[in-house]
């Protein structure tokens, strides 16, 4: 890659991260962000032991991601974020700010995992994925990361108009185009998961994270009545969404993950969580 282009891309990335830290009042941290042809190659290089044994990670599943957070082997080690290079470069060339949402999504995971293991005094990051008791957090951080990433996508796309709650053009487009598209996409992905509770809950967290930002930015349009219309035919989904928007910080969520587990069990009988 041309050195000048690489310099410009790194400057753009630094600008986005600076805005992220400032907006959320976070201290900057060292994260190894790698743009790779194959995300699985980065993952294997960083954590080869996770691709061995009966419960090994699938390279094929890894490659379905545009970006991925790779935890270090030990507490205190540096996180890695691997971003698909072609996706990133094409988005930048087309002036598509989707890449911002991806980067911020993964950065949110980094902070969530760091804070979660500290709060709960865990011995390493791997137990979070391995032990079912931590599954509510795994789903919650997907909601949190999607919400935060999507907020920054809109922030960079619409600039100073992103949080104009009276912007009818934006809210109408969401109601008429984006919401129906996302509902249809959720329905397809949910059905395609074929009863796999983890995958179905993952897809639901993505939808709910995005939806929560519509409520945040356009509260006069996305009100309680619309929320009831979107989720009301599935009472457990409405309960789940109410829980998530009522626990938008990890401190709050961590105290009540037992409640989240109970909501999950109302729909997924026998789910050992």
* Number of discrete domains: 2
- In the sheet with the most strands, the strands line up as 1-3-2
Task: Give helix % range.
Answer: 55-70%
Q: Provide the gyration radius in Å.
A: 19 Å
Instruction: Outline the low-pLDDT stretches.
Output: none
Number of H/I helices: 13
User: What spatial form do the alpha-carbon principal axes imply?
Assistant: globular
**Taking all residues together, what is the mean pLDDT?**
94
Structural class: mainly alpha
Distance between the termini: 46 Å
Strand content: 5-15%
Number of strands: 3
Sheet with most strands:
3 strands, mixed
The succession of helices and strands, N to C, reads HEHHEEHHHHHHHHHH
Topology (SSEs and partners):
Elements: H1 3-23, E1 32-36, H2 39-46, H3 59-62, E2 67-70, E3 80-84, H4 85-93, H5 98-119, H6 126-130, H7 135-158, H8 168-192, H9 197-217, H10 224-231, H11 235-246, H12 250-255, H13 257-267
Parallel strand pairs: 1-3
Antiparallel strand pairs: 2-3
Helix pairs in contact: 5-7, 7-9, 8-9, 11-13
Give me some keywords for this one.
single chain; 273 residues; 2 domains; 64% helix
What's a concise summary of this model?
The protein contains 13 helices and 3 strands; from the N terminus they run H-E-H-H-E-E-H-H-H-H-H-H-H-H-H-H. By secondary structure, the chain is mainly alpha-helical.
How does this structure look, described?
With 273 residues, this protein is mainly α. The protein has 2 domains: 3-130, no CATH class; 134-267, no CATH class. The protein is 64% helix and 5% strand. It is built from 13 helices and 3 strands, in the order αβααββαααααααααα. A 3-stranded mixed beta sheet has the order 1-3-2, sandwiched between helices. The longest helix has 25 residues, at 168-192. The termini are far apart. The relative contact order is 0.09. The model has no long low-confidence stretch (mean pLDDT 94).
